[in-house]
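chain below, 502 aa
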Amino acid sequence: MSLVVPKRVPKRPRPGRAGVAAGSPLPLAALAVAFVLIQLLFVIPGLNLNWDESVYASQVTPHIPAAYFSAPRARGIPVLLAPLTFLTSSTLALRIYLAVLSATGLSVALWVWRRLLPMPVIALAGVLFSGLWVTQLYGPQAMPNLWVALCALAAVGCFLRAAGDRGDRRALVGLCLAVAAAALLRPSDAVWLSLPMAAACLFVRRWRRPALLAVLLAGLALGGVQWIVEAYLSYGGVAARLHRSSAIEGGIGWHLAVGDQLRTLAGGPELCRPCSVPWRHRTSAIWWLATPLAAAAGVVLAGRVRRLATALLPAVCGASVAVPYLLLIDYAAPRFLLPSYALLSLPAADALAASARSVRPRLRLAATALVAALVVAQLVSQHVILDRAVRTAADGTGDYARIAADLRKHGVRPPCLITGRLATPVGYQARCASGQITGHNRNTTVAEILATARHEPVAVLVEPHHKPPAYARHWNVHRLPGLRVHHGYRVYLSPSESQKKM
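prediction:
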């Protein structure tokens, strides 16, 4: 098997244009600025930390007790947040920091491809990916999926560069670092991402280089060593941690989740588990169904111009990293497929660009205008969904801050403990420890809760139509008014010191 990889796209100005060269970073810089502005204007305002973000941020934020860190999680996001959280716990500062960082990461990951694809194709791929509502929603959020997507873009680009040019040592270093970062963020995603590249090293004759495979494996080892060490220290080994992770995720096995993913495309739910919601706004799935077709067309067209590898490998890696989320788990979230969207955007953009170039010269302007109109229509439709998704997310995360404010009014201040449903995100907002006596996040016992209640405030959050735990039934109960999503919640508060003395 032989795949042709171009070593370099010539860096020369286009005829008749004295401005931007083919390899100029200006289009990607403009894309990064636009991506930041969209996040600042349409995503960040009013968006508090969600459940998972609270877990990650609590690990590295001083003066906030660390929430329970379950087996499936990895330490990449806390590492990413640490430089800022050591300085401030401000949610707004965190959002701005991540918005700027994600936009910079997007432009850097795409810049890796400048020697493999024409800059207009790279920029168009960046527009297609960054224009998705799910990309924009998670740009300023402390969640791993978008960062895995950027690592995937960089890793596949570096792999192709190193495969096509044995003297490109920077590409080898970039491949190792990108795969290591992906493994630090989500080890399982890094493995699925790396499988096609490892297979290419073994079965593509021109790429049978021990150094290339060694660098790929070194990246996995470098990024995964922390997860492995933690597995032995906290879970009894890798196998035990994987078993625990599988149990928390509902069991890894054959589960066709394509329909579940379709239900999340209209702006939520952010986590569809169990995914029994109806499939509304079905037109929002048109782009999702068209993307693999466009990517396949891009692969075919790239083969005709003798750069098959630059379209085929990202398409195969994109399909590989989607396998667990489409076939092996029984729930869905729109963010799960971000790495696939990022990789498939390259051959899809190549197909769109080629469709405008392949017509007769006199029709080329009209074809280009048609492609531009399709892209603009896609961006507009995604913005409509983004607006709906942001409002939903802001209402839900805003409830956590509202509950924390009510608890402070009732005397729940650090040091304190919150347990029950929503304890993790509310605990972060209230600067309290969070604990659970049941479920996958079990990290305390009734005896420990009662012992804590003797010297600091303890709050038990209880869902609507649910009874409080037996140990808290005689505690002070308060309604939690003004909630937008979590209606009917109430809190049971341990007796204060003055009440205990009476």
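The longest helix spans residues 364-409. Residues 397-501 form one domain.
thats it, cya
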